[in-house]
Amino acid sequence: KAGVTQTPRYLIKTRGQQVTLSCSPISGHRSVSWYQQTPGQGLQFLFEYFSETQRNKGNFPGRFSGRQFSNSRSEMNVSTLELGDSALYLCASSGSTVAGANVLTFGAGSRLTVL
Amino acid sequence: GDSVTQMEGPVTLSEEAFLTINCTYTATGYPSLFWYVQYPGEGLQLLLKATKADDKGSNKGFEATYRKETTSFHLEKGSVQVSDSAVYFCALRSNFGNEKLTFGTGTRLTIIP
Questions:
Q1: Cβ A56–B98 below 8 Å, yes or no?
Q2: If interface means Cβ-Cβ distance under 8 Å, which residues of chain B face chain A?
Q3: Per-residue pLDDT for A99 more than 90?
Q4: Cα distance between residue A19 and residue A63, in whole Å
Q5: Quick check: A34 and A90 in contact, CB under 8 A?
Q6: Hey, are the CB atoms on B36 and A106 less than 8 Å from each other?
Q7: Is A56 in contact with B49 (Cβ distance < 8 A)?
């Protein structure tokens, strides 16, 4: 079956702009998580959605937001972009209905460059 | 809070050498433990997992044993191949009602022929 699909794969923005990234989970998966990967900070958890509800949130400013739709697809948005937002943004989905009971499958990521 | 401490890299080995990448953790309760691998230009792939003490996860010749007494989950492989060159991440999930993973900093492994 198809894996986790993230779009776009690459994008370039300038400071102050906003960006929206999309994630389509594996069919049937209802949990979607987002992570930011940078050389300096490594992999950091942004947030997790399950059945259109945010179930957990990491320590990121309010400029970072997300949502999940009824078909489990998820989007994350970053407003007022800063240079430090340049990163690989990874989405992961999980098929379990019981939190913590399954493994996460990751997409290939969206690489954001902020100039 | 939860944390994962991973062996600093980069690590360079010759083909067929023995590999160990150390990983220790701090967590409350009984976390699940994972090793993920990232190849260039790709996302993370699950390599193996263990969900309780003394469990051994294994896949593609890699192994790791969940040691609660030493809070460790070291990754080992008896004979590495060039195709094993990648970045390896140790991670834990606290199992407190969500899917959040806490990752180590990653170890870049290069295997030379």
A1: yes
A2: 32, 34, 36, 41-46, 49, 89, 93-106
A3: no
A4: 10
A5: yes
A6: yes
A7: no
In terms of DSSP bridges, do strands A19-24 and A105-106 run parallel, antiparallel, or are they unpaired? unpaired
Rounded to the nearest integer, the mean pLDDT of chain B is: 93
Residue B58 class from Cβ within 10 Å (0-12 exposed, 13-18 middle, 19+ buried)?
A: middle
Nearest Cα residue to A43 out of B75, B33, B90: B90
- Cα→Cα distances A19→A11, A13, A77, A81, B63, Å: 9, 8, 6, 8, 40
Question: How many Å apart are CA B26 and CA B97, to the nearest integer?
Answer: 18
- Nearest Cβ partner of A45 from B89, B95, B100? B100
Helix (H, G, I), strand (E, B) or coil at A85: helix
B44-99 pLDDT per residue, tens: 999 999 998 999 999 999 999 999 999 999 999 999 999 999 999 999 998 666 77
**Residues written for chain A:** 115
Confidence band, pLDDT 50/70/90 cuts, at residue A33: very high
Partners of B111 in the beta sheet? B13
Mean pLDDT, residues B6-21: 94
Helices (H), A1-115: none
Mean pLDDT of B29-39: 92
What's the confidence (pLDDT) of residue A96? 64
pLDDT reading at B110 higher than 80: yes
Closest CA to A90 of B106, B57, B50: B106
Q: How far apart are CA A77 and CA A19, in angstroms?
A: 6
